[in-house]
Amino acid sequence: MNRIHKIIIMVILVVVLMPAVVMAGNDDRRGTAGAGELLINPWARSAGWGNVNTANGSGLDAIFTNVAGLGHTTGTEVAFNYTHWLNNSDIGLVSFGLAQSLGSYGVLGLSVNSMSFGTIEKTTVHSPEVGNNGTYKPSLMNIGVSYARAFSTSIYAGATLKIVSEGIDNVNATGIALDAGIQYVTGRDYEIKFGISLKNWGPSMSFSGDGLVINSTYVNSDHMQSVQQRSLTWDLPSSLNIGASYDFLFAEKKYRFTLAGNYESMAFTDDLYTLGGEFSLNNVLLVRGAYTYQKGRGDDIYSSDGSRNNFSSGLTLGASVNAPLSKPKGDKKGTFISIDYAYRMTAILGGIHTVGLSLSL
User: Fold this and answer.
1) Are 55 and 260 in contact (CB under 8 A)?
2) Which candidate, 77, 143, 67, places its Cα nearest to that of 111?
3) Are 267 and 30 in contact (CB under 8 A)?
4) Phi, psi (rounded to 5 degrees) for 9
């Protein structure tokens, strides 16, 4: 138990000694962070109930909300997810994840998220007409390597190191970000869970590349020289999550209803408060939903005073179907395939759809 107490104390110290992260967002800092794609949950399961599973997330699905949940993986897990970002847009997010248990040494995870915006026509200062300069494709990508471990039947901890890459034609930016988290599970049937996670902590980023170079001519001279413009730096959208959940078990544990809550302290916008629930029918059919409250979310998105800071309506819904491909035999746990779906309602542009397919070996 001494080792467990040291882990808990260490996590508390990390939270207390990072005032820049735990400080709630304010109006002066709103909109000043970059790499906003790090705030998009690419996994259908946790997205379906508003990222509320900081305390009880498990497997690859936990990488976004609380990487400590990756430590629950006992075999191999592979997942593919696709997000249609805003129904009336051509923006898509493709995600791939792989988790592998190393037995008593913990669990390794890999996640790749790539966002596509289609093809955009180029324009320049000297040729502003569309169609005369070719096309380009913006790219947003982040690659994460995760490690999590179960230190006991009650304590799970993990961390993710992410490489963040953004680019538009001949201008790009690259940075790194760190996620870390811990989960505590207790109760006779391990039905009580708590979780803390720190997300998107890292150094600031800035753009560079030939696109920031311009050719200028000296005044009263024919001499031309290339001038390098400097890009402003921006901070990553860091946040601190604190969550709890409780499992209500019925009919000899064949039916489960989980009630979960999460508080997310945002460094660059107003804080988020989420309450959600998930019903499981023998772990074959799962239905979930959640609502997230944020100051100003109910205001008109077209208001001129800028009181609304998020286009999301706050309501999310989701479902999963788990099908066994092979039954457990002896030490083998069997093979399962899962089809997941999530819908996030938005005030404009038709909402956000995510579909996922995962295989557990």
Assistant:
1) yes
2) 143
3) no
4) -65, -40
Is residue 317 within 8 A of residue 329, CB to CB? The reply is no
Bridge partner residues of 324 (DSSP): 336
pLDDT tens column, 120-154: 888 877 777 777 778 888 889 999 999 999 999 99
Distances (CA, A) of 233 to 34, 56, 236: 9, 36, 10
Structure tokens at 26: 């304010």
Nearest to 55 by CA among 261, 272, 317, 255: 261
Residues in the chain: 361
Q: Find out whether 342 and 44 touch, Cβ atoms under 8 Å.
A: yes
Encode pLDDT of 237-277 as tens digits: 999 999 999 999 998 889 999 999 999 998 888 889 999 99
CA distance 315 to 207: 35
323-340: pLDDT as tens digits: 988 877 666 677 899 999
Q: SS in 3 state form for the chain?
A: CHHHHHHHHHHHHHHHCCHHHHCCCCCCCCCCECCHHHHCCCCHHHHCCCCCCCCCCCHHHHHHHCHHHHHHCCCEEEEEEEEEECCCCCEEEEEEEEEEECHHHCEEEEEEEEEECCCEECCCCCCCCCCCCCEECCEEEEEEEEEEEECCCCEEEEEEEEEEEEEECCEEEEEEEEEEEEEEEECCCCCEEEEEEEEEECCCECCECHHHEEEEECCCCCCEEEEECCCCCEECCCEEEEEEEEEEEECCCCEEEEEEEEEEEECCCCCEEEEEEEEEECCCEEEEEEEEECCCCCCCCCCCCCCCCCCEEEEEEEEEEEEEEECCECCECCEEEEEEEEEEEECCCCCEEEEEEEEEC
Cα–chain-centroid distance for residue 198?
12
Where residue 78 falls (left for φ over 0; alpha for ψ -120 to 50; beta otherwise) is beta
pTM of the model as a whole = 0.86
Rounded to 5 degrees, what are φ and ψ at 97? -140, 145
